[in-house]
Amino acid sequence: MILKEDKLSKLLQKYPQERRHTLAVFQDIQHECGFLPKEHIIEAARYLKTPLAQAYAMVTFYRSFSLLPRGKYVIKVCDGTACHIKNVQGRLDCLKRVLGLDPGETDKDGLFTVETVSCLGACAISPVMQINEEYYGNLTEEKIYEILADLYRKEMRKL
Amino acid sequence: MKKTILVCCGPGCIAYGGLDVAASFREKIASLNVNATVETVIKQSGCHGFCSRGPLVRIMPDDISYYRVKPKDTEEILHSLDKDPVERLLFHNVGGGSVKSQRETPFYASQMKLALRNVGEIDPGSISDYKARGGYEALRKALTMEPEDIIAEIEKSGLRGRGGAGFPTGLKWRIAAGYDNFPKYVIMNGDEGDPGAFMDRALMEGDPHGILEGIIICALAIGATEGYLYIRDEYTLSLESMKEALADAEKGGFLGESILGSGRSLRLNVVRGGGAFVCGESSAMIESIEGSVGEPRAILAYPTEQGLWDKPTVINNVETFINVPLIIRDGSAKFAATGTKTSKGTKVFSLAGKVRNSGLVEAPMGMTMRKIIFDIGGGVVGNRKFKAVQTGGPSGGALPESLLDLPIDFDTLVRYGSMMGSGGMIVMDDWTCMVAVAKYNIEFLAKESCGACVPCREGLRALSILLTRICDGEGEVRDLEIIRSICELLRQTSRCGLGKTAANPVLSTLKYFPEEYEEHIREKHCRAGVCGMGRNTEVKDDVDLADIAAMARAARKATFGETREKGPDGSVGGKKENGTHNNKSTNSTGAES
Ligand SMILES: Cc1cc2nc3c(=O)[nH]c(=O)nc-3n(C[C@H](O)[C@H](O)[C@H](O)COP(=O)(O)O)c2cc1C
Ligand code: SF4
Ligand code: SF4
Ligand code: FES
Ligand code: FES
Known about the structure:
Number of domains of chain B: 5
Number of domains of chain A: 2
Number of helices of chain A: 7
Largest sheet of chain A: 4 strands, mixed
CATH class of the largest domain in chain A: Alpha Beta
Oligomer: heterodimer
Low-confidence stretches of chain A: none
Distance between the termini of chain A: 20 Å
CATH superfamily of the largest domain in chain A: Glutaredoxin
Strand content of chain A: 5-15%
Strand order of the largest sheet of chain B: 12-11-15-13-14
Helix content of chain A: 40-55%
Strand order of the largest sheet of chain A: 2-1-3-4
Largest sheet of chain B: 5 strands, mixed
CATH architecture of the largest domain in chain A: 3-Layer(aba) Sandwich
Distance between the termini of chain B: 50 Å
Radius of gyration of chain B: 25 Å
Low-confidence stretches of chain B: 536-549, 562-593
Shape of chain B: globular
Mean pLDDT of chain A: 93
CATH topology of the largest domain in chain B: Rossmann fold
Bound molecules: flavin mononucleotide, iron/sulfur cluster, FE2/S2 (inorganic) cluster
Structural class of chain B: alpha/beta
Number of strands of chain B: 17
Number of strands of chain A: 4
């Protein structure tokens, strides 16, 4: 999703035109759009008086940014140590079977994105995944099916 | 009669439905008017610690704790407030019998809560809750003290940085205070990048004012007038909690222009981290706040001399700051009475992995790992055998059973090739392959290496290739020598702590579990059954599925049945029946359990 011009400038104008706000501005754009559209990076760099190369260096350095559009539901599967030793691969295989997605991929309808992350900070209930803002702990294969089934049902009702 | 119902709304309990439980309490109180004689207050608190039994509910002042509470239980709890507790929701001892208070459970009994003093006890969004427990008294006291005396008090307490390195906090403040170069800055390190660590978020979400009070006192001591709270962007709750606390503290006069009328000012800003592990390192964090990529600086001067915008800067960890008000308020002697000779006070550990009771544990420095894992943690889950505990995050080490009686503090574990680090403790059982664990940690560090210096960038890549070969059954004996020499290179020549300590997970597993490397290389055998070796492998899991399996199967059929044709590769929902022990490498469908 690309922001309308006035919405983008409103977002930018919350910040003084200084390079140190690059990270914050990009985070805001990503929160709004789900990823960082090229047009917005260029516009933001201009506004923040930051060389474009520097802006792209930021975008590619910080792991939370995505240059590609992501799905409506971003599924972050934790692969931190506590989760990893409880067979995260099994859960990823399970998502792959249902959604056909490997980590880093988005389906062509733009509904789901699967990602792995390094720790969601809820290790006591590992294995954990997060879908948008919601956490799901003690994941089993069955639980993943249930969760996905719920989301599919929710989407189908809207049709 | 007045009762407070504290509903845990930490991340673990929220995932288990804690917010629904809190909502249900509110709704029931409003609609039922259940108990006219009892005035009841519902509070959403931070993490109570025992996350694996969430959602937790605690009734005060009776100190009754309930575990695994569901919304359907709330009515019964409300009706019981002036009667006997609800037996089935209490903690039940293994040998039978139930207990009311947390303190009587093995999980809490030997803990000591200093840093966590308010976490789970108050509504973190309420500054008056904080003040009611002595909050901001230390700040008032600090305002009557000379900066020099504040620093002396922190020095005498023996407080050392909780972020991992254990640098003496008082000394750090003294160095920064010594420069006449203004403005000076104070930074809170809330990046919490170690996988398996979640104590800092529990503090930020459970007692934000406790941290702020520590930061303000630090600013007074070193003469800082501006500061930054660097918090991971993924920690949405922590960000909200700290921002709200900032606003309330400012309203209360504890922050901003002329703190409590003293004429001293401090402005604090929140900066959201970008999900780069290396930004937890002080100089990388400074780069990040300045608006650059977070590459650690080649050390010419420490941040205490030339930090943010080249001004004197103190960076401390969240947990370090939250200890400060205690020391100022109650005196350094009291703080120093707990702990070991060189490590004073307590440490918060996050206990996770294959351990029965996982959650947050605060223990005096010097407690043995055995006590934490077996007495508090209840031992290994699922009757498996303990194999190792990884302490100190990805760049810590894995320690075997024979070392469990070591006291845990800043210095002891380092001598054995690991470290206490920020307090992550991940328990591993005999279904864990130690070579695969080393490989996993190295892959994590290689991914997170900023790439600025060659030994770390290339060394970690080489290590990860070598370890992958060994795990795939293609390793050779001489690989071990190459691995050792890369480890030495990393340690000696890397620019920052990430590269310098990156060898720990490899060297410690080589030292304590050499037989596993040998078996992988010589016999092409993985005793834990984790590594593929090009053969069929069992992937095991300890989660019991029986109860929800049937329901899930039905749901799956109902929904994915119709979408099967549309399925991306036609392999939708093909799970092998019956198995906790399925097959991973022979076909893509046979995952675990
Ligand atoms: C790669 C790397 C990552 C680090 N990550 C963190 C972190 O997430 N949180 C933290 O408090 N300290 C982290 N540190 C330690 C900090 O560099 C620094 O020592 C600490 O914040 C200082 O505060 P303290 O003295 O209160 O511990 C990290 C260090 C390195 C080398
Ligand atoms: S990445 Fe480094 S070498 Fe390549 S163009 Fe940029 S500065 Fe030059
Ligand atoms: S040791 Fe690694 S993370 Fe640290 S500066 Fe060098 S390349 Fe970057
Ligand atoms: S390791 Fe998965 S939540 Fe921390
Ligand atoms: S989140 Fe509730 S006990 Fe930890």
